[in-house]
Amino acid sequence: MYKKFSNGMIELITGPMFSGKSEELLRRLRTLSYAKFNSLLIKPEYDNRFSEDEIVSRSGLKEKTHTLKNINDIYNLLKNDKYQAILIDEAHFFGQDLIKVADDLANLGYLLIIAGLDQDYLRRPFSPISDLMAMAETVTKLQAVCVVCQNIATTSYRKIKNNELNYIGDFNEYEARCRRCHILANKVKKE
C-alpha cells in the first residue's frame, strides 16, 4: 500500500471530535508496521488530556509518542533515525508552522499522515488543517453521530461558554453535532 515516495506524500485524516481520527491514525501506523516502515509518531505537548507521552483513542488504543511544543522541533527527531513515515495527531494545535513543515517533509520524501480537526467549535475552517486539505494527496473525512438527532455529525459543538479557540476538552465540554443541530444550539445560546 505504501512505499517511500521520492516526492513524498501528505495524507490527511480529519473530521469533528468523536469521529475516530486518532483511532484511524493508529490503525494506519499498525498497517505501516506490517510493511516494516520505520515510523515517527508525534503529538503536540499541549494536548495531554489522556496521556503525556501516548496517543490514546477513545476506544482504548494507545501508542507511545514523541510530544513536541513546536512542530519545527521535528527536524531534531529526524537527525538520528531513518524514518520513512511521520504520523501527527491533533495537528491543528501546531498552528500555521505545520503547513510549511508538512510541505517540506513531503518534498524530502517522507510519507506524512496527519490527523486533526477541520473546523473549529463555531464551524469555521480550522487552519492549519483546512489549508492542508488543499495540499494533501489524499483526504479522509470522518464523521461522528449527532448526539441530538443521531444523523451524521460533521461539527464539534462546544457546550460551555469559553471563546478560547484551542480549548482542550472532552465529553463534558464538546458534543458531535450535525450542521442543523449545531446551528440551532448556537441560536439558543445567543438568546
Automatic annotation (TrEMBL):
One family name in Pfam for this protein: TK
The catalytic site is made up of E90 (proton acceptor)
> What does the record give under GO molecular function?
thymidine kinase activity
Recorded catalytic reaction(s): these are: thymidine + ATP = dTMP + ADP + H(+)
Q: Does the keyword Zinc apply?
A: yes
Location(s) in or outside the cell:
Cytoplasm
Tell me the residue numbers annotated for binding Zn(2+).
Answer: C146, C149, C178, C181
Which of UniProt's keywords are assigned here?
ATP-binding, Cytoplasm, DNA synthesis, Kinase, Metal-binding, Nucleotide-binding, Transferase, Zinc
The record lists ATP as bound by: G15, P16, M17, F18, S19, G20, K21, S22, D89, E90, A91, H92
- The EC code for this enzyme is 2.7.1.21
Presence of keyword Transferase:
yes
Q: Can you tell me which family this protein belongs to?
A: Belongs to the thymidine kinase family.
The molecule here is called Thymidine kinase
Q: What is the lineage of its organism?
A: Bacteria, Bacillati, Mycoplasmatota, Mycoplasmoidales, Metamycoplasmataceae
